[in-house]
Write a structure and sequence with these properties.
This protein is mostly beta strands. It is about 5% helix and about 50% strand. The chain contains 8 helices and 37 strands. It is globular and about 80 Å long. The two termini are about 40 Å apart.
């Protein structure tokens, strides 16, 4: 393992003293709890009304409690959610540069950045990393939900519906609202250990959470978490060059990266007046990651005559802080808050060389850093008003928001980009560096009411103005009709949008990518250009505009008794002007020379563009049943299914300049990644048994078929269905101690192997696909010891 080089702001000794967090729209979110014993709980996501239950919601909402979040061996939030939610997908790419460190998750088969993430109802900042390689979510820069430690979370509410009219940009596929633990009572400490049956991927985790009273008027909760996770390796034998001394041996590393996350979260509230509370919450977290690039064969560098494996060492730092006041005056619930959030991604590379510098090359390079910052001010009002003729009060909510965002790129060491640049990842150049910012302001109004004893409804509208692309308006209408206590029908119709991120507008770098040329996987210097740059304009780029969405859904709710509940929700989501990273366009000499005259020497180019209109149709089915055996214990059963299909309705006209040079801005592979790269089906069956001091859990998940597309249809590879079975059990020892042991992927299931079609397995070293929704690590054993009070 290489020596780590930390960025100058890391200061791990300060970690336990640092405070951070996230952001909101209506900050009334902290008022709800998710009682474990109830199948129907009070929700705060997608509504401004008080005491709204999941059963009464006009939109589908999943409630995931702390017990469920701790039910697997994983300590990554995205991994846990993907196992619990059939509509969520979280593959585990490897060999994809920064995407190895910050992996994106998708909801309902849409882009990762089309899901809005809230913490305590406040908008979470996005990562600074842009997924520019050939993975699920290529071109996106979403929230890194793995930066949020499980120890800080009370429960999570997942709204599976468009909600831009209520929350603004990004809420196209849905909303994930992470509710933090609160109150002065209770706490726990947990230590865990696990490893894969292959003997790698060892993981040690330490978590702690506790509350403290602040006199008789307030409380403070602190949660901390640290983990050391060793890498996994499922690479095949390297057979690229028979003259290589290591020919036929495993020289590549392909699997999970080595990661060391450290996090601390706080949440506090204090009464400062008769009807006024002060609140704040925040986080400071660092995650060190060591990811492997592609093995360089022998003879390429005098420093490594037998070849070398570049190791990308990154530190992703998240810090956030929310501070606010809320109260009640004249029947109006009010909330005002300010939040700050940022992600800094510092990137080094070790065990590598710049081939241009021969034996004078360093073996360690600082490649540069990315930083994304968000500042938000909110003011929200809500109250219930009696209205004659209605079966219940009318909930009126309104508010304003002002948001400031910035995105920054800092250059790396000169040796990292001069000439051929550092192998494995060339550094950011001074021409790439810069800071860009924007601001937007918005206002919304939301009305909800129980119109009759059987019919409820809601309408919402939101206006936003962005300094970089102009204004947009969103609207939403929803209704629910209860035929009786057992059967109800619900539906929503909404328009929505997603603003182009600053990262998509201004991310720029020159890197070495691989393309199949004459049957050989060939390295090509590829420039990613900002859309407003001269280089991008020379290739036909236009200014980005917002994505526009329309959501329609109809749902049936069945609850014949208090222990059984089933929901069936059918949806259609159309997205126009969807933002995508263009194809890697291998440039003819004329365009190469045009860019070279600007000082840009590349063999291929790409940029972001509004190029695709898509339609996603699907169905979510969720069924829960509780069987109470009295003294013999209790069973809780869950069955869930998601089916979704995305089709491309329109592709923007190819720029004339590119057509003249026989280039396609959006090629077949870029198009089909949006339609066939994630499973169309996902099905899960879960059972929990609790009796006295014992509890047992089993979860079987079937991941559906998916396809890794190529520009030549004959080279596509289709991957079959895969079953994964997770089991665990725990026993309570005395009043405070609990021991848990389990096996994720009990049957040691692996996805189909890649073939030589399109060189997907790169001469044998990549035997599994990065698109695999269940990863490719195999069976995992784990145990946890927990002390709670």
């Amino acid at each position: 393992m290489s020596t780590r080089h930390r960025h100058p702001n890391s200061g791990r000794a300060l970690l336990a003293l640092s405070l951070i967090s996230t952001i909101t729209v209506p900050a009334f979110a902290q008022q709800a709890q998710a009682p474990e014993a109830e199948l129907q709980t009070v929700v705060v996501t997608g509504t401004y009304a008080k005491n709204r239950r999941t059963a009464d919601s006009e939109s589908p909402i999943d409630i995931i409690g702390a017990k469920e979040l701790q039910s697997t061996g994983s300590t990554e939030l995205a991994t846990v959610l993907a196992r619990l939610l059939p509509s969520m997908n979280f593959p585990r790419p490897s060999g994809t540069d920064a995407s190895d460190a910050v992996r994106p998750a998708t909801l309902r088969g849409l882009s990762p950045d089309q899901t809005l993430v809230l913490v305590n109802g406040k908008r979470r900042h996005t990562t600074a990393v842009v997924n520019v390689n050939g993975t699920v979510g290529r071109g996106s820069s979403p929230v890194d939900i793995n930066a949020i430690p499980l120890s800080a979370i009370d429960h999570i509410e997942v709204l599976r519906d468009g909600a831009s009219a209520q929350y603004g940009s990004d809420a196209i596929a849905g909303v994930v609202n992470i509710i933090l633990k609160k109150g002065p009572k209770g706490g726990d400490v947990e230590v865990g250990y696990g490893e894969y049956s292959e003997g790698d991927g060892k993981q040690v985790t330490l978590k702690a959470s506790g509350g403290f009273a602040l006199g008789d008027k307030g409380w403070l909760r602190i949660a901390a978490e640290a983990a050391d996770r060793d890498p996994t390796n499922r690479a095949g034998a390297d057979t690229r060059n028979a003259a290589d001394p290591l020919y036929g041996k495993v020289t590549q590393r392909y699997g999970d990266s080595e990661t060391k996350p450290r996090n601390i979260f706080f949440n506090t509230q204090y009464q400062v007046g008769e009807n006024t509370d002060f609140y704040a919450f925040g986080q400071y977290g660092e995650r060190d990651t060591e990811a492997a690039a592609t093995w360089r064969t022998f003879g390429r560098s005098p420093l490594f005559p037998n070849g070398f494996l570049p190791l990308q060492n990154s530190t992703s730092t998240d810090q956030s802080f929310v501070i606010g006041l809320r109260g009640d005056i004249g029947g109006w619930r009010w909330d005002t808050s300010f939040d700050y959030g940022s992600n800094r991604f510092w990137l080094d590379i070790d065990n590598t060389a710049n081939l241009t510098l021969l034996d004078k090359s360093p073996t360690h390079f600082h490649l540069g850093q990315l930083k994304n910052t968000q500042k938000v001010f909110n003011f929200d009002l809500a109250r219930e008003l009696p209205v004659a003729g209605l079966a219940g009060p009318l909930t009126v909510a309104t508010g304003i928001e002002a948001r400031r965002e910035s995105y920054e790129i800092d250059a790396g060491d000169e040796a990292s980009y001069v000439g051929t640049g550092s192998q494995g990842f060339s550094g950011f150049r001074p021409v790439n560096a810069g800071k860009n910012s924007r601001h937007n302001e918005s206002a919304y109004v939301n009305l909800e009411a129980q119109l009759t004893q059987k019919l409820s409804g809601a309408i919402a509208a939101r206006y936003e103005h962005y300094s970089d692309f102009g204004s947009t308006t969103s609207a939403k209408a929803s209704a629910r009709y209860a035929f009786n206590d057992a059967v109800s029908l619900r539906g929503t119709a909404s328009s929505g949008f997603r603003a182009p991120s600053l990262a998509q507008q201004f991310y720029t770098i020159t890197t070495t990518n691989f393309a199949v040329v004459n049957g050989v996987n060939t390295p090509i210097e590829t420039g990613t250009f900002a859309t407003n740059s001269a280089a991008a304009r020379a290739l036909g780029a236009q200014q980005l505009k917002a994505e526009k969405a329309r959501n329609l859904s109809v749902g049936l709710q069945l609850q014949p008794n208090r222990n059984f509940n089933t929901t069936v929700d059918v949806y259609r989501i159309t997205v126009d002007d969807r933002i995508a990273l263009s194809a890697n366009m291998t440039l003819p000499d004329a365009l190469k020379n045009a860019l070279a005259s600007q000082g840009i020497v590349v063999g291929a180019g790409r940029y972001f563009t509004n190029a695709i209109d898509t339609k996603t149709t699907g169905v979510d089915i969720v069924s829960t049943y509780r069987l109470d055996l009295n003294a013999a214990g209790r069973f809780d059963f869950t069955a869930a299914y998601n089916h979704n299909k995305t089709t491309v309705e329109k592709i923007a006209e190819n720029p004339a300049l590119l057509t003249a040079n026989k280039l396609l801005l959006i090629d077949r592979q870029t198009t089909l990644r949006n339609t066939v790269g994630t499973p169309k089906d996902k099905f899960s069956l879960g059972a929990d048994y609790t009796a006295g001091i014992w509890s047992l859990r089993g979860l079987a998940t079937q991941y559906g078929e998916f396809t890794v597309p190529q520009n030549n249809a004959a080279l596509d590879q289709e991957f079959g269905k895969q079953w994964v079975l997770d089991v665990s059990g725990s026993v309570r020892l005395g009043k405070n101690w609990r021991v848990t042991a389990g096996i994720d992927n009990l049957t040691d299931s692996y996805p189909d192997k890649t073939t030589t079609l399109g060189n997907l397995n790169t001469n044998g070293i990549y035997p599994y696909s990065n698109f695999s929704p269940a990863g490719f690590n195999g069976r995992y054993y784990y145990a946890k010891l927990n002390y709670s009070w």
